[in-house]
Structure formats: structure tokens, C-alpha cells
Design a protein that fits this description.
Number of helices: 14
Number of domains: 1
Low-confidence stretches: none
Mean pLDDT: 95
CATH class: Alpha Beta
Order of helices and strands: EHEHEEHEHHEEEHEHEHHHHHEHEH
């Protein structure tokens, strides 16, 4: 099982180089940058420069805030600069962010994403294989590529494309046109078995591929600590994060699999009132353990392996609380040997 680390939300640009070097030394297989309060691509240029073999990737970049040509270009450049180590991890975001934050159009996210990724692949084929650019879809049209704007072939080929998905339609797109899936942290092993994998298989059948052709990457919730106080803090923080995600209407299906569908309505109402602490208190022990592996550091790897081995190919630690980085070192080693 591969293990991925990531760039913290508050990390400064001055600290990226050292953070990436430390991650590679620690044994992480991948280093992911999220699009939150900063651009997701610029930090990866620094990470690529200061590492040698660790993969780098976005987890995620918002696809619909851009267009296929712009992402094809930046993905191609990072793939070349990193010497074939870049993973372009994409996500759709939700309508209010696309229309109100990015001022971009929103329509039928799954079909649009399928076409978006197909358009990028057509652009890369133009650059790599000298194919005529003639992509005409319902949402995107790319038919112009003059030599001045053509970067030419790269010995490293196109980057792998991973897609974040929760619902079945977007998950099918993973199987149809992607190299991997960024499984949402608000996911349980039961949901993966009952919803995610069947949807992926439907997409794979359409593309004539099999499960071995894609990777599933999961940021797994973990509750851990070396003292009772640390365990209590990580427990409370994780419940709040689960509640935050659970308040989102688009994620209701995950709760419904576990018989908690109505909790989504209650959490959503509280979120509109800003009752974040109270929301966390509604996550009972059964639901916490459905989403998170709760264990002391020495038992954490075993718990993750027992739950996710055979389901996902890559894993990272979703710990919405402060933890000593050394906590993860023996866990990484044990997971990589699984």
C-alpha cells in the first residue's frame, strides 16, 4: 500500500522545500497539495525541485474553475519538470463555489467532467503524437493548435489524472476516463464496497478496462494520541470534521448507507446557525468508528490495514488536529510493507 503525505493548509512558501524533503526521507510515496487558500500548483514546482522520486500531485485542483487547455498545459509542464512524477488530481467543487467564488458556469457535473478530461487527453495527444486537435463536445471545443503554442512531445508522457468523487455518476467517470480516484475523506469502507466499487466497475466496463488499471487513494480519518488528553482532543476534532462534511447535502448518501440519513438534515440546519461544536456532539461513537480508525499509534497501521487493505491502493492520514510528525513514521513503514 502506498502512503501519501501533504502540504498543510497553513504552510508558508518558505517551508515547502524542507517539508517536501522531509516527506521523501520519511518514506512517503506521494506529496499532495490542495486548492484551499493558495494555488495548488505553485507549491508542487518547489516540491519537485527538492525531491527525486516521490510523486507530487494536486488533491485537488478545481477543474471547473479552469478549462481543459489551461489544465492540460500546467499538468504537462509539471509532469515534464518533475520527470514523470506528477498526478493531476481534479475535483468539481459544488455549484455555489463555481458560480459565486470563481464566476464560472455550472451544468451537469459528471458529463461535464467526463468531457473535460477527454478534452485534455485530446490536447496531450496533439502535443505528444502530433495528432490533429479536433475535439468537439457539448461543453468544450478545442480545434486550434498552431506550432507557436505547441510545447512538443515530452519523454515523460502525460500526467496521470485522478478524480475526486462521492456520488455514483462522478465515480463512474473515474472508471471511464481516469487513472485513479481521490476517494473523499467522508467515506467508509462499507460505502466503498457497496457504492464506490460497483460504480467504478460500471465505468471500467464502458472503457474496456479492469480494476488493476486504476488506483484508489483515500485520506483516512484517524483518531490517535499518546495520552488520554491527546486522544480526547483528536476524538473531538474528528467528530467535528465528520459533522462538517455530513452537513453537505451532496454527501447524504454516505450517511444513508449507515442509517443516518436524517442526521444530514439536522447537521445542515445547525451549520447555517454556526453551531459547529454542537454539530460534532451529534456524531455518536458508532458513526465515529464507521468513519475513523481509532487507535494508539502502535496499533494504527494494523487498524488501517484491516479496514482498507484490498479496497484502496494509496492511503494518507486525515488528522484534523495537531500531531507530532514522528507519530506517522512507524505507521508509514508498516503500511508500505502491507
Amino acid at each position: 500500500m502506498k502512503v501519501d503525505g501533504g502540504l498543510g493548509y497553513t504552510t508558508t512558501f518558505d517551508g515547502i522545500a524542507q517539508l517536501a524533503r522531509d516527506a521523501e526521507v520519511a518514506g512517503y510515496d506521494g506529496f499532495l497539495s490542495a486548492e484551499t487558500s493558495h494555488d495548488p500548483f505553485l507549491p508542487l514546482l518547489i516540491a519537485a525541485e527538492h525531491t527525486e522520486h516521490m510523486q507530487i500531485g494536486t488533491g485537488i485542483a478545481v477543474a471547473f474553475a479552469r478549462n481543459p487547455m489551461t489544465l492540460a498545459n500546467v499538468g504537462y509542464d509539471l509532469q515534464t519538470y518533475s520527470k514523470g512524477r506528477f498526478i493531476l488530481g481534479l475535483g468539481s467543487q459544488i455549484k455555489p463555489h463555481i458560480t459565486k467564488r470563481f464566476s464560472m458556469p455550472w451544468s451537469h457535473p459528471a458529463p461535464r467532467m467526463r468531457e473535460f478530461i477527454s478534452a485534455m487527453r485530446a490536447i496531450w495527444a496533439c502535443w505528444l503524437d502530433d495528432e490533429k486537435l479536433d475535439f468537439r463536445g457539448d461543453y468544450y471545443t478545442h480545434t486550434l493548435m498552431t506550432p507557436f503554442f505547441d510545447p512538443g512531445p515530452s519523454e515523460y508522457g502525460p500526467p496521470k489524472v485522478f478524480l475526486a468523487a462521492v456520488g455514483e455518476l462522478m465515480t463512474e467517470v473515474v472508471g471511464e476516463v481516469c487513472d485513479g480516484m481521490l476517494v473523499h475523506g467522508f467515506t467508509t469502507d462499507r460505502y466503498i464496497r457497496e457504492v464506490t466499487l460497483p460504480a467504478i466497475e460500471r465505468g471500467l466496463a464502458t472503457s474496456g478496462r479492469t480494476r488493476i488499471d486504476i488506483e484508489l487513494s483515500l485520506p483516512a480519518f484517524v483518531v490517535t494520541g499518546t495520552t488520554e488528553e491527546e486522544m480526547a482532543e483528536s476524538d473531538a476534532a474528528t467528530r467535528r470534521q465528520i459533522a462538517f462534511y455530513g452537513s453537505t447535502p451532496a454527501y447524504r448518501g454516505v450517511l444513508e448507507v449507515h442509517g443516518y440519513g436524517e442526521l444530514q438534515t439536522e447537521l445542515n440546519a445547525l451549520s447555517k446557525q454556526g453551531e459547529w461544536a454542537k454539530m460534532g456532539e451529534l456524531i455518536d461513537d458508532d458513526l465515529l468508528h464507521a468513519f475513523a480508525v481509532v487507535a494508539e499509534p502502535s496499533r494504527l497501521a494494523a487498524g488501517l490495514i484491516e479496514r482498507y487493505a484490498g479496497l484502496v491502493d494509496r492511503i494518507s492520514f486525515y488528522a484534523p488536529y495537531k500531531a507530532d510528525p514522528d507519530t506517522w513514521l512507524p505507521v508509514i513503514a508498516e503500511l508500505k510493507s502491507a
